[in-house]
Amino acid sequence: MIIKENVIPVDEIDDKQFLKMDEEVLPEEIIFFDLEHYVYKKPKCIGVFGACIYNEKNRSLEVTQYMIENRKEGLDILNLALKYFQRMKENGKKAISTFSGNNDFTVINYLFNKYNISYDFSKEFLSIDLQKAYERDIKTSIGLKKLEKIFNIERQGEVISGSNLAKTFHKIMKDSDYIKRMPKEKIENILLYNEQDVVNLFYIFTNWKKYIVINEEEDDILEEAEANDKNSSSDILDDNDKSKNKGLRKKVEEIIPK
């Protein structure tokens, strides 16, 4: 198992720029989380587990990563992930932040269930999905790389596609010696790619209002228009019902004269 821990200094953050959720959560209470995994018809393994937390005192991000080196470690990485989340819960973390996190949670929950690991994320942590937050505020969907451009985030190293990562982890699961033949640079690039995923989640969360402009006045106008449309539709239906009742009474009176 490759275990990598890194401390990354960050600039001072401004709480006025934070993403606001229904329940207020501070950056130091959040786990920023991302998986690189292999799925073929159903989840096969987690290749890289990546997470980071914000240390307010030291003004830094503490990054933790696990990467499998063979099939046996497919189970080991799940146990390490479980211990990490349990430890973070004990340390006062309240939420997990992801981007399109449903994919990662589907994979890890499936594998937890497969290996009889009992853990319910929904009971332990609040979920902060930045893709859903963007859809809520801007009313359209977006991918992570496009969102990073909005936030002026420049990635280091090469961008690795999900399909290439899946092929790599498939080979690692199939051939226990494959990792030994992998160039060191390739392993470093995979870990750097995952590290930037979780670090960028922190940056996006803490700078949300700086880059995501919500036209609240426009939202109010749209909500008022929708409410008026509903009322108008209701009035029209009421008028139609009244007209039908009048016509029915007239027909009855014609058949049965007073």
UniProtKB/TrEMBL annotation:
Q: Which SUPFAM superfamilies match?
A: Ribonuclease H-like
What keyword terms does UniProt attach to this protein? Exonuclease, Hydrolase, Nuclease
| Residue stretches making up the YprB ribonuclease H-like domain | 31-207
Record region (Disordered): 224-258
Asked whether the UniProt record includes Nuclease among its keywords, one would answer yes
Name the residue ranges with Basic and acidic residues bias: 239-258
Q: Which InterPro entries match?
A: RNaseH-like_sf (IPR012337), YprB_RNase_H-like_dom (IPR038720)
- Which GO molecular function terms does the record list? exonuclease activity
| Record carries keyword Nuclease | yes
Name of the protein in question = Putative exonuclease
Give the organism, scientific name: Clostridium baratii
Provide the taxonomic classification: Bacteria, Bacillati, Bacillota, Clostridia, Eubacteriales
